[in-house]
Amino acid sequence: MNNPAAVAYVATSFDQDERTGLEPVLGGRLQPKAVWVDEAACIGCRYCAHVATNTFVIEPHLGRSRAVRQDGDTSDCIQEAIETCPVDCIHWVTFNDLPGLKRQLDAQELLPMGVPSPARPRRQLPRNTHHG
After folding, report:
1. pLDDT range class, residue 31, cuts 50, 70, 90
2. Statement: the pTM of the whole predicted model exceeds 0.85
3. pLDDT of residue 28
4. Cβ-based neighbour number of residue 18 at 10 Å
5. Is 95 exposed, middle or buried (0-12, 13-18, 19+ CB in 10 A)?
6. How far, in Å, CA of 2 to CA of 25, rounded?
7. Of 59, 40, 36, 49, nearest to 81 (Cα)?
8. Region of residue 127 (phi > 0: left; psi between -120 and 50: alpha; otherwise: beta)
9. Which helix (H) or strand (E) holds 2?
């Protein structure tokens, strides 16, 4: 029973590998940092999606920006997109921060852009009924 052909090929399991966030991503370069959009603060201006077109998209249901590819654009292009943000809601973070940030985002109840939030009631001003 020492037939080498009878031994099954055993591949290493990905579950045993420890992910560091520094692994090469498609382009083969090591990425020590990731980009994150704080969607709760995003105003949906679309500037970042116009600058770094392969990294950011506007989420269709909420109308807010989202980073969908960490390797979509160069770091310089992503930095330029970050600098165009009028509300400073795009940040460089570590890859290890991404799961926790995603959990925080999922725990928030975000409404589509343009829908009044119950947390911020519309201000009711008295109408001026005097003419003159």
Report:
1. low
2. no
3. 44
4. 4
5. middle
6. 41
7. 49
8. beta
9. none
